[in-house]
Amino acid sequence: MKSFQFSLEKVLEYRRDIEEEWEIRLGQVNGEYNRILMDIEGIDRNARQALEGCSHALGQDAHSWGMYRLRLESQKSQLQHALAAKEEERTRIRKKFLEVSRDRKVISRLKEKKMAEYKKYLMKEEIKRLDDISAAKAAGEAEL
Length: 144
What we know:
Radius of gyration: 33 Å
Low-confidence stretches: none
Order of helices and strands: HH
Structural class: mainly alpha
Largest sheet: none
Distance between the termini: 34 Å
């Protein structure tokens, strides 16, 4: 009896590789997105500290704290634009990942279906073989 062979195994392996590549890309872009979020949170903390420092400062120090806060707000604005761009990229990559994942799953389901058909075929062959053995044995006992 020959073993199960799926004719599209190479295609399935290829699609698994493609899916893995897109999964890695998605992980990378998620990491970059989270890094930008953490940078924004850090700027928010620094801005709160600058606001507190500004309230206690006088004259030139107050002006310096104010300028520092403005620079932080500018950095935060730049990071928010980068975050929006990264979110678009993340959405695009997630869609592509889901698409290639769906393509791989189609082939996987087909393989499972073919495997089930093969097992069903093996069971029928086993039953047929056992019936033949039983019939031969019964024929042998009938001759005695």
